[in-house]
Inverse folding.
């Protein structure tokens, strides 16, 4: 092993390194713009504030990180290959998805775990309906963010459930699917509800008032998406109306 | 071992934008402390315990050095404490440990955060990099989403309603209108809101509306901690530490279904688990409750010799970035049993006129939330409360809780990955 050199087995990196070169130079923390403003300032309560003059500068900064997935790399490689893996502790039998290479059960004394292939099935443990999100995910709105317990796993993985936002519930059975373009990140997979399930009476979202307010604010999100990205409500709804 | 007290504080009001920079804001808060504490000679300060959360927000590492230098305390020993949202509480507790152990007599704890140098979405992204960036951040969540998921689980298990979350929001916002240092009052004035206003507010991540979520703020606060030996020199109304406790939980909330570190620790709380829902391997905390705060409370109550927190605590300033956290912590802090958080708000116990007022300042959703300063602001508010100084400080006696003897405050980082509790007395 001493003679072994680092080898690149597959390379999907070159283009981003090239593309990022220009960005890295832009994001160098140099001042790229400035403003003079007048704004409230000073000590004390709100009513004590005075107006002061300030100079604001714009300083961009960006970076390209090259990050190792470490010993759980196999999980992310699995996503690219459309296979779902977890790990199992040989001592206590706990199955982890997300995988951890060492069991965290204190009685197992950091035992090394073993890889297991998991079925592409699971259950919604809990969820949120996201009507607003961070920049990178705006075009995916509205979406259901859920923590899904994969069948056979004792923990949950966060992922999006592609469903009408009013129809998700705790305990919903889902099937795991993979996106066409996969980069080796959790977003490569998503869940869709298994057909034929009814929203239970006691689902915490199953309340006519809640659903009415949700519909109202969904319209707000659609209007925002149309204005910002020219997206159409009908097209957005096609994601889950199949 | 020495007793420890908070003997003073100063504030640089939090708001969405403050145009003084961080060191100037801290200096103004420090001057506010000096004005309020005439006996304090800056040379008396033994140690500077600095509190700020994010290096990303201002692209400045080691900002603590700038702060210490700017206020002329750079000869003194000092360091920065960082633990996400728990940062300011942990800074206070660190200072407490150093005094309690006899190393120092007088410690200044400056805290600050300047969160508006990048746009709101980027601020959210930077804060979300406190979540696991391989496993939680990449699916579009960020903290609104994670906390919404935790609250959904708690709702499904224990049946609180949107109205309960609304009542908490209305309570906190209306309290803040009487707080002349609050961001809500700065942005919206002194008019009260109603449940109707809450229902008309936009949902950002169901079950949370905007009003349920913490503010983004810029602001600073300084707290002065002293040993029993010197406390009376600086304050006629010291606020004594009765007990402190820290706790931690898993990094990823999704792992709390097989949270072996908690297995069997709280059997009574595991038992109160509804049969209608599939039971995880570790029913406590699951993705519903906050074990880190439970641990912190157990330790703090033991040190403070508190048997029945609901009866013995007179008011609480909870570090609740979302209103469901406040409701859940009524349970984990043992103000009530697991699953009964909803009754605390329904019966008005946590209103400012109730038996155990919570978030009288307005809390993180309405007072302000410049992360590194937040718990300092909440502790300073309690210092004013226990000293009966609210009417004098606010020019309005509405928020003064009369005859309060014991107060509690908490810290809360990540999705409850880290937590802490302090019990104070007058």
């Amino acid at each position: 092993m001493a003679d072994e050199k680092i080898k690149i087995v597959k390379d999907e990196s070159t283009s981003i390194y090239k593309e990022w070169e220009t960005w890295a130079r832009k994001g160098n923390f140099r001042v790229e713009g400035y403003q003079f403003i007048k704004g409230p300032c000073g000590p004390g309560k709100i009513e004590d504030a005075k107006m002061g003059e300030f100079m604001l500068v714009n300083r961009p900064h960006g970076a390209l990180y090259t990050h190792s997935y470490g010993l759980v790399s196999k999980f992310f490689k699995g996503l690219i290959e459309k296979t779902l893996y977890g790990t199992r502790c040989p001592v206590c039998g706990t199955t982890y998805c997300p995988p951890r290479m060492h069991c965290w059960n204190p009685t197992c004394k950091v035992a090394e775990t073993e890889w297991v292939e998991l079925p592409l099935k699971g259950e919604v443990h809990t969820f949120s309906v996201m009507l607003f999100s961070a920049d990178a995910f705006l075009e995916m709105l509205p979406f259901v963010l859920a923590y899904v317990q994969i069948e056979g796993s004792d923990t949950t993985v966060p992922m999006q459930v592609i469903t009408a936002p009013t129809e998700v519930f705790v305990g919903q059975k889902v099937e795991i699917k993979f996106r066409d373009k996969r980069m080796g990140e959790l977003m490569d997979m998503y869940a869709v509800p298994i057909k034929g399930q009814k929203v239970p009476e006691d689902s915490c979202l199953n309340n006519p008032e809640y659903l009415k307010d949700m519909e109202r604010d969904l319209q707000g999100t659609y209007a925002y998406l149309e204005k910002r990205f020219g997206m159409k409500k009908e097209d957005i709804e096609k994601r889950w109306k199949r | 071992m020495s007793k420890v007290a908070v003997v003073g504080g100063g504030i640089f009001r939090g708001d969405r934008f403050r145009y003084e920079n961080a060191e100037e804001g801290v200096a103004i808060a420090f001057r506010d402390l000096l004005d309020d504490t005439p006996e304090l000679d800056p040379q008396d300060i033994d140690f500077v315990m600095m509190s700020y959360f994010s290096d990303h927000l201002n692209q400045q590492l080691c900002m603590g050095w700038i702060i210490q230098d700017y206020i002329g305390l750079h000869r003194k020993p000092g360091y920065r404490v960082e633990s996400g949202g728990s940062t300011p509480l942990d800074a206070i507790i660190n200072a407490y440990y150093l005094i309690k152990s006899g190393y120092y007599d007088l410690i200044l704890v400056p805290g600050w955060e300047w969160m508006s140098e990048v746009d709101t979405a980027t601020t959210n992204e930077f804060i979300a990099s406190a979540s696991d960036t391989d496993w939680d951040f990449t699916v579009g969540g960020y903290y609104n989403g994670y906390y919404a998921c935790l609250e959904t689980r708690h709702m499904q298990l224990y049946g609180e309603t949107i109205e309960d979350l609304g009542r908490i929001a209305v309570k906190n916002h209306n309290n803040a209108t009487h707080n002349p240092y609050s961001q809500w009052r700065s942005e919206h004035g002194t008019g009260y809101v109603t449940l109707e206003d809450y229902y008309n507010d936009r949902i950002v991540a169901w079950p949370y509306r905007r009003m349920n979520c913490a503010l983004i703020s810029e602001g600073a606060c300084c707290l002065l901690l002293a040993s029993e030996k010197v406390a009376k020199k600086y304050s006629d109304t010291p606020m004594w530490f009765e007990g402190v406790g820290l706790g931690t939980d898993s990094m990823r909330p999704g792992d709390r279904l097989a949270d072996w570190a908690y297995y069997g620790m709280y059997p009574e709380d595991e038992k109160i688990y509804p049969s209608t829902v599939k039971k995880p391997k570790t029913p406590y905390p699951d993705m519903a409750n906050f074990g880190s705060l439970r641990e912190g409370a157990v330790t703090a109550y033991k040190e403070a010799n508190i048997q029945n927190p609901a009866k013995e605590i007179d008011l609480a300033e909870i570090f609740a970035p979302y209103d469901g956290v406040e409701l859940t912590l009524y349970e984990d802090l043992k103000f009530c049993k697991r699953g009964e958080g909803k009754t605390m708000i329904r019966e008005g116990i946590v209103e400012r006129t109730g038996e155990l007022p919570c978030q009288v300042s307005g809390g993180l959703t309405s007072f302000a939330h410049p992360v590194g300063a937040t718990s300092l602001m909440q502790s300073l508010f309690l210092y004013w409360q226990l000293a009966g100084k609210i009417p004098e400080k606010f020019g309005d006696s509405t928020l003064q809780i009369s005859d309060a003897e014991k107060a509690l405050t908490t810290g809360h980082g990540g999705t409850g990955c880290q937590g802490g509790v302090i019990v104070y007395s007058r």
